[in-house]
Design brief:
With 516 residues, the chain is an alpha/beta fold. It contains 11 helices and 27 strands. 49% of the residues are buried. Bound molecules: alpha-D-galactopyranose.
Amino acid sequence: MVILSIIIAFLFSAPLSWAQNQPSAVEAADNRLALTPPMGWYPWNEFGQEPQNEKLIKEMVEAVVSSGLKEVGYTYIGPDEGICFSRDASGKLASNLARYPSGLRGLGDYIHKRGLKYALYTDAGTHTCSKAMPGTRDHEHEDMAAFAAWRADYLKVDWCNTKGQDVARTYTTLRDALYAAGRPIVFSLCSWGEGEPWKWGASVGNLWRTTGDICSPGKADWGNAMKIVAANEKLYQAAGPGHWNDPDMMIAGMDGLSEAQNRSFFSLWCMMAAPLMAGNDLRKMTPSTAQILTNLEAIGINQDPLGIQGRIVRRDGQVEIWAGKRLFDGSQAVLVFNPGVAPAQVQVAWPDIGFAKSTMLYVRDLWTHRTTGPHTGGITTTVAPNDVAFLRISRTSAFPVPPIIVADTYQVSLRGSGSSARKLEGTVTLKTNGSDELPLWKVQPRLPAWLSVAVTSNGKSQTLTNTVSTAGLKQGFYHALVRADNTEPVSGKPISALYYDVDLEITGGVDGRKGD
Ligand code: GLA
């Protein structure tokens, strides 16, 4: 009888509390995801399929935290084509427990509790590329529901084994299935440029690969990366907040690249407003690579709220002058890239970057962290082979960093007893790396009746206190997805909405916070 009543309580309370909190189709489209390029780590470039498993992903989660990458905004992490699931006889996806003993939901919880977001991978065809995993073809709705149930926040959908499928139509079906699944998930299209997704992708996904793979697993290929830059550069008009050209995951820090190449690669990805998905082995990163990947001034260019993709505005011999990237405070980003074999002296003239010759401008070097000026007319700089000068140019000598948000956790787990009415509390702290304090985060009004959220500010960090009142709650599991919104105060541009999970278990036992 007791067991029966627990089952009944679970069946009625959990889906009910979730349904109260689930977005409509219109709200799903207005999910404000990825308003700046997604940042994170993905295993494919370094490892390929082997040895992707729970141990590797958890070690990389710890490395993201301990290396300082998390602190500067790297957030999304998870397996790529890593033999994560199979399809069972009933057609449902099931976690591969041999490789991921906690199950895919368990891995997601681990990632969320560390203040990171969960990325998963699938394919639009019958199978993934190696055929080791099933694709979503003819299972679109049930598969997207599975990714939502595993609490994915980011989904990369590959394009292998898709014979006879139309690219735009297939990804649109998957988008609708994702909306129907009810969890806001960054949607990463991976058709390698097939079907020209830059022409229609903005209304379908948040990012789309523009080219083939940047390298074979474990083999960084500088020449191929440069071809990808040339192709991706031409598509600059398609990029903007919520919809990005994706020239593939990064190779910076992989064996075979020099320090100058790592610096150039990272600067190019920042200048192209490309997703910053690190692809190197973070467990054995050199101090030089760590310093490059965590350069907040460079990341600030990538994470600028205007979301403009820079482009080549002039060539001087082999040297490329990249500009056209106005930033939130009215300053301009400029990249001088020397892909040649000899040092090059280059003049950046103010008219090249949209200022009149007589304008007095300050120049910030984003790698040496020095400011000079004011200068009129332009500046001359010498750039070593394969290296860059990455600059920010402004009428004032203040070079503010835009908001780059870091959370201490994305999952609040509370447990209470149904026998006595109590208040339970769990917090989420959001910090900005930006120069300015942010307005208070606005929590969506539509929360389930058992949950309220209060926001308090402590300068650049704000605490969202989640209070649960157990009064009247039956035994069972309850879940809510909380959404918080904010704006960048200088430009008035919206910041990506922030989502976190609140889990509540009502037992017959003792109240408190579930042991993390
Ligand atoms: C494709 C993608 C890669 C990776 C592999 C996995 O090649 O472009 O990024 O996901 O599939 O097989």
